[in-house]
Description:
It contains 16 helices and 13 strands.
Amino acid sequence: MNLTAEERHMLDGQRGPVLAKALDYLVQFGEAFGAERFVDVIYAHYPAEMSIYRGNVEDAVEYAGTGARVCIPTTSSTLACDLDQWDKLGCPRALYDLQAQVVDAHRRMGVLGTYTCTPQWLGFVPPKGSHIISVESSAIVYFNSVLGARTNRGGIFTRYSAVTGKYPLMGYLLDAGRRGTHLFKLHLTPDDLKHESDYSALGFHVGALVGSEVPVLDGLPRSTPTQLLALSAALATSGSVTLFHAPGNTAEADSVEQAFAGASPKATYTVTRKDLQAAYDKLTTVGAGETIDFVTLGCPHATLEQLRHVADWFAAQGKRVHADVRLWVCTNRMTRQAGQWEGIVPRIEAAGGFVVSDCCPVESHMRISTCHEHGLPTPQIRAMVTDSTKMARYVGDLIGCKTALRNRDDCLRAAVDGRA
């Protein structure tokens, strides 16, 4: 790679051994993928080093002990437990004690304790064309597509970019990597995309067809940020999409032609309501009317407006969560605090629900592997209802429960009735 004088000084150890080692990893990474040079990154969304993965916390603590500090604004992704309510939610003390060590490590490094999959809801909105580095698939797709910032899937290299401010110029940072590859013509009415779960179903359908390439959605109606995030999360669940274009909704292409930048689509698909329904059906393994014991909303993490909707729904219905059902509404800790201040969180809790921060069910003590390690019975959940294809896709394997994909209000009705 062609290095600047500043980068050579860093690599030679003139700014200390920590930065030298971090940049060396990035040089090896860039050369492996043919990158010619580095770019400066202005923001990082950092892996949270979860205690459900053996060695993750210990590695985070060890790295903080080297004196490493981030040099750009750096937020953190989700943990394996709610640090404030861990005991009330059934998390084992040993798992909490281990996870809590990450907080001190991150503070010493200068990583912000956001612990969320939706840092954009907290004001971390990198400008179009900026180079960033991120973990968390839904955030990556949203940053690239809706905001037009440029990031690859960061993985462990996010750590080294956060402390050096550098990343190899390759992949989705290049114009060539951002061209559309597959065209999806949406034959959908406004009623077909009424709920965020419909966007989630759309993304699940498209992601399965396109894999790791760049879909272009022709005919997507003007959508809200939360709808586009639901779409982003789902695209990265059934496939490994990192970027999509939807003219009128995304940042870089005002037309289908611009999205393909002169190239022809590798394939063209038509999408109808039947395709969305097929996604609902595929992710629903709970029979109609069957009893359920868990409902979760907030995958990705809920906004304050979404929390208010839940509180207002319970107030309008005048009902409570069924005695045999746990309702988790997952969000980040800052939004939970705002909801507490506004009186939204107490209203949800009064109806029998939990407003959970820092984590979500699939990244928690309820994982089968974690239950075995801590002597907990499995499965922790028998049948879950959710409005997220991402949650429905992963909990079946990782928690071992049946699932039902429904829109948000139907999820809340299931929480009250105790049935899908």
